[in-house]
Amino acid sequence: MNYPQIQFSERKSEIDLEQLQQLFNICAFWARERSIEDLSIAISNSEPVISVCDGNRLIGFARATSDGIYRATIWDVVIHPDYRGTGLGSKLVETVLSHPRMQVERVYLMTTHQQGFYEKIGFQRNTTTTMVLYNQANLEPLPAEEIQLQELRGG
Ligand SMILES: CC(C)(COP(=O)(O)OP(=O)(O)OC[C@H]1O[C@@H](n2cnc3c(N)ncnc32)[C@H](O)[C@@H]1OP(=O)(O)O)[C@@H](O)C(=O)NCCC(=O)NCCS
């Protein structure tokens, strides 16, 4: 299938957050029912953020976080079901990987079902490095004076 009108963009301000919320509700089982406010926070703290539009319709999305030199992680890769199987998903991930912030030693991602898709792009399976801490709501943030004290102590 050929979609000459499809545009890839790295401009965060162009992303329609309501459409993004809908896209996640349809096809991202890990990202259902995210609020517009929280999506906005995630986008502003991610770089690059790549959106894919067919005219005004948001049909793909991916974002990454990176330290700019050692490690980066890709998050929330989705292509709308109507547009899958035409190469857009791999182009989306390759667009993320080609961004200057992604020129690091290692790029990680977590996937439950799409290992085969990422292998075609060059990712390797890696079962040894992942740990997770769920829900930090019960962790009180340190008061600012305590953080300063720890920095002075080098801790
Ligand atoms: C994963 C996803 C982004 C792929 O998008 P897509 O546009 O269909 O991918 P492409 O058309 O670029 O596929 C590229 C290649 O990977 C293959 N492929 C796609 N999904 C695959 C899978 N799960 N297992 C093995 N191969 C797969 C395609 O057949 C194609 O192969 P080819 O180059 O030999 O033709 C899309 O299926 C999706 O949004 N899924 C739901 C959300 C999701 O699970 N995202 C990943 C979260 S980590």
List the helices and strands and how they pair.
Layout: E1 6-9, H1 17-27, H2 36-44, E2 49-54, E3 57-66, E4 71-79, H3 88-97, E5 106-109, H4 115-121, H5 144-153
Parallel strand pairs: 4-5
Antiparallel strand pairs: 1-2, 2-3, 3-4
The structure holds coenzyme A.
Residues 27-28, 77-79, 84-90, 111, 113-114, 116-117, 120 line the site of coenzyme A (COA).
Fold and architecture overview:
This protein has 155 residues and is an alpha+beta fold. It has one domain: Gcn5-related N-acetyltransferase (GNAT) (Aminopeptidase), CATH 3.40.630.30. Helix content is 30%, strand content 21%. The protein is built from five helices and five strands. A five-stranded mixed β-sheet has the order 1-2-3-4-5, sandwiched between helices. Helix 3 links the parallel strand 4 and strand 5. It is globular, with a radius of gyration of 18 Å. The termini are far apart. Coenzyme A binds next to strand 4, helix 3 and helix 4.
